[in-house]
Amino acid sequence: MRFPVGSAGERRFWHSSQALLLLPITLIVVITAVDVQAPESIHLGPALVIAPALTPSFAGPRTTAAVGALATLAQIVIGIAHGGIGTSNHIVQIITLAVLSVMVVLYSALRERRQAQLAQVRTVAEAAQHVLMWPLPEQIGPLRIASLYLAAEDEAQIGGDLYAATVCDNAVRVLIGDVRGKGLPAIGEAALLLSAFRESAHRHHTLEDLVDTLEQSVSRYTADLEPEDEAGERFATALLVEIPDRDQITRMTSCGHPPPLLLSPGHVVTMPSLHPSPPLGVQGLPATVEHTLDVFSFEPGDTLLLYTDGVVEARDARGRFYPLAERVARWTDDSPEALLHHIRRDLLAHAGGRLGDDAALIALHRTPVDRHRHHGHGHGRGHGHGHGRAAARQDTAAAERS
């Protein structure tokens, strides 16, 4: 029988708490035994307060109260062993220990209440974040997908970076972006861009038209809701990629976003040519900004890695940026999940365990297309390879001439 992860975690915590409970109990027994055997001039009884003081670190107020009562009882036993509890010294020690134990129990109760409130807030925040950043499916058309999000703020699961994917017209359209700022304050702009993409991706036949719509949405938002002290500082970078199901020619357009990396079997890493336009929402630009459409060949067996600048701008202790292209060359033959697992571990090690900015990555692995499903339009790697590379060169030359 398999238990949910949460139940297993609760059982482990319960067992660890039981083991830790032996520490204050052992302290009480040892201090009491030593004090009873020690000369009357030596008083170890006041050290019994250590036991209830330690208990709230791993147990609740009830257990803390029980340990405090046991410590007070031990103080009474020490008093009786040293000639009775009627002396003023023993009475003061017993009362002091009892009062301190009550204060520790109150502290434990307040701490437990605060933890419960914090857990509720985290639950609500996680639900809101999952509504905003929909998890990407593991498979879309001919693509196997894995995604990774590393938020700069400890209590946040998302922040200013964003990604989304949708299927439209026998192709997969993917968005990855980065709004100015990091952590929770940038979620509003991220939500706007994600909503605009999800709503508009199915309505426009070309990426250029889709980018124009996203530009209008971001500009309208900044014009209406941008604070006066942040005028001109709200913008977002974005990379839009369109991957057809039947064709190996992949299209992309960038608004100030870093170019993707194309990983091919045999530890080959290339960076497709990219001609970015300014970020979305930058003020002072012409009413109509021309967005360049770049094309490249994305063949079965290749992996396309999209990322935000929080990845490549992560610094180590010497101030050196993270060499993403160099590092991923080791893992070009891995699955998308394994690839992102390696990057996450290596990136955090490079940055000393903590990133200075939000970071997001998407790994898209192209699998062979089922020709029967696409009514004979699928091609083997040999024929598709030559046709795809030639078409890519022709489309790239035409895009550069335009």
Structural features:
45% helix; disordered N terminus; elongated; alpha+beta; six-stranded antiparallel β-sheet; five-stranded antiparallel β-sheet; disordered C terminus; 10 helices; 402 residues
Q: What is the helix fraction of residues, given as a range?
A: 40-55%
How many β-strand stretches?
11
Spatially, the strands of the biggest sheet line up as 1-2-11-10-7-8
The helix/strand series, from N terminus to C terminus, equals HHHHEEEEHHEEEEEEHHHEH
What is the overall shape? elongated
Strand content: 15-25%
Structural class: alpha+beta
Largest sheet properties: 6 strands, antiparallel
Output the number of helix runs.
10
Determine the N-to-C terminus distance: 63 Å
Spans with pLDDT under 50 lasting ≥5 residues? 1-7, 371-402
- The average pLDDT value, as a whole number, equals 82
Computed Rg = 31 Å
Structure explained in plain terms:
With 402 residues, the protein is α+β, with helices and mostly antiparallel strands. Helix content is 45%, strand content 17%. The chain contains 10 helices and 11 strands. It has helices spanning 5-37, 50-54, 61-81, 88-132, 187-200, 207-225, 309-312, 324-328, 336-350, 381-401, and strands at 139-140, 143-150, 161-168, 171-179, 236-244, 249-255, 261-264, 268-270, 294-297, 303-307, 359-366. The longest helix has 45 residues, at 88-132. The radius of gyration is 31 Å and the shape is elongated. The model is unreliable at 1-7 and 371-402 (pLDDT under 50).
